[in-house]
Write a structure and sequence with these properties.
With 302 residues, the chain is an alpha/beta fold. Helices cover 38% and strands 28% of the residues. The protein is elongated and about 75 Å long.
């Protein structure tokens, strides 16, 4: 759906995006993470033909950036970090203007459809300038969906929203994902990215890594299982360390914390070994590293 090869953007002597190569699959939510100034928004602007690349190539919906720019703009939806609405016009009038620009066939019907979809139909006559930030964001999402785009570019869609409004936007992203749309999501909200994204790319001018959130955690930290026992001593720890599939283990009070690659396959054997030596296993849990842990580790090493 999106293919990027050696895409570079320079502003004078500053390289904003450096030699980016990336594929985004049809129907996936792809998270694009990085610190401020890392090149996320510049990448989105290149892919939506708002700025031209310095070098490299990219295609969106099979259309080539730099050659099919008008067609790309017609085929994608974009939500920028600032909604950019006409504050002195009503919500309905805002969308009507953009529906006409997109040459939507049934303007009135499509405007009503997206307003109802985001729960704004009853506020259609209210001025956009009187909306809260959350409602403006919802209206901007309506605008991005007017022409039924196959690809949506969302730049910080929940930035500055209250928890209720942010949840509504996240729920909406999950809903449109189920309808097969491809979503390119730039966000600083790592918990949001963890919950919504099929894969994640981390950029700091150049692309640092791409993978699923789970695989990124496992690659950087492995998997860690905590065995909660009624009592554990050094002999218990030595028993666990002696098992061939244990990568590392330590005792913390009456818990054994063990690193291993395949807990589903090996946890039963560990529990059996503990029980056979008389240990009382109270419960077993996996220690989860957050996507924030992954992100900070990547930033520290680059």
């Amino acid at each position: 759906m999106i293919q990027i090869r050696n895409l570079t953007k320079k502003f004078g002597g500053l390289t904003a995006v450096d030699n980016l190569t990336l594929d985004v699959k049809e129907g996936e939510v792809f998270g694009f993470l990085g610190p401020n100034g890392a090149g996320k928004t510049t990448t989105v602007r290149m892919l939506t033909c708002l700025v031209g690349p310095t070098s490299g190539q990219a295609t969106v919906n099979g259309l080539q950036v730099g050659r099919d720019d008008t067609a790309i703009r017609r085929s994608v939806g974009i939500l920028t970090e600032t909604p950019g609405l006409y504050d002195r016009l009503s919500a309905e009038k805002n969308l009507t203007i953009f529906a006409n620009l997109y040459e939507v066939k049934d303007v009135a019907g499509q405007v009503e459809k997206v307003l109802r979809l985001l729960g704004l139909w009853d506020r259609r006559d209210d001025l956009a300038g009187n909306f809260s930030k959350g409602m403006k964001q919802k209206l901007a999402i309506c605008r991005a969906l007017l022409h039924e785009p196959r690809v949506l570019f969302l730049d910080e869609p929940t930035s500055g929203l209250d928890p209720e409004a942010a949840k509504l936007v996240r729920d909406f992203i999950e809903d449109i994902k189920e309808h097969g749309r491809t979503i390119f999501l730039c966000t600083h909200n790592l918990d949001e990215a963890d919950r919504l994204c099929d894969r994640i790319g981390v950029i700091k001018q150049r692309l640092l890594t791409v993978d699923t959130p789970a695989n990124l955690r496992n690659r950087l930290f492995g998997r860690t299982v905590v065995f909660h026992l009624r009592y554990a001593d050094e002999s218990t720890l030595a028993l666990v360390r002696g098992l061939p599939f244990i990568k590392n283990a330590q005792r913390v009070d009456n818990k054994i914390v063990a690193g291993l690659d395949d807990p589903e396959a090996h946890n039963p054997a560990i529990v059996r070994a503990l029980v056979e030596t008389g240990a009382d296993v109270q419960f077993v849990g996996e220690l989860k590293h957050s996507l924030e842990d992954v992100y900070l580790a990547l930033m520290a090493n680059n």
